Amino acid sequence: MNAVPTLQIENDRVIVTEWRFAPGAETGHHVHAHDYVVVPMTTGILRLEEPTGTRDVQLTAGVSYTRFTGVAHNVINVNDFEFSFIEVELK
């Protein structure tokens, strides 16, 4: 099952996407083409399948984090409830 992206804004400086994950949904493996900021809208755990292995990360609603271009992973909702976040990519 795939996570559902909803594009909110795209212009010459940013791409803002809302991501919604049903329980068990995932993004599929991808590589980020831009630096980005994630703003969790839900508190819970996401599983990251990365080239170096798999790890679970605890995210807290409203507590943002940033990553750089080139991050490669698959993101999976391991909670028994919907999880969502806003992703802001910086062009």
Question: What can you see in these coordinates?
Answer:
This protein is an all-beta fold. The protein has a single domain, classed as Sandwich (Jelly Rolls). Helix content is 0%, strand content 59%. The chain is built from no helices and nine strands. The strands form two sheets. The chain has a five-stranded antiparallel sheet, with no helix packed on it. The chain has a four-stranded antiparallel sheet with strand order 3-8-5-6, with no helix packed on it. Strand 1 and strand 2 form a beta hairpin. It is globular. It starts with a strand and ends with a strand. The mean pLDDT is 98.
In short:
With 91 residues, this protein is an all-beta fold.
Summarize the amount of helix as a percent range.
Answer: under 10%
Domain tally: 1
* Envelope shape: globular
The topology string of helices and strands comes to EEEEEEEEE
Descriptive tags:
about 0% helix, globular, about 90 residues, four-stranded antiparallel β-sheet
What's the structural blueprint in terms of helices and strands?
Blueprint: E1 4-10, E2 14-21, E3 30-31, E4 35-40, E5 44-50, E6 53-59, E7 65-67, E8 72-77, E9 83-90
Antiparallel strand pairs: 1-2, 2-9, 3-8, 4-7, 4-9, 5-6, 5-8
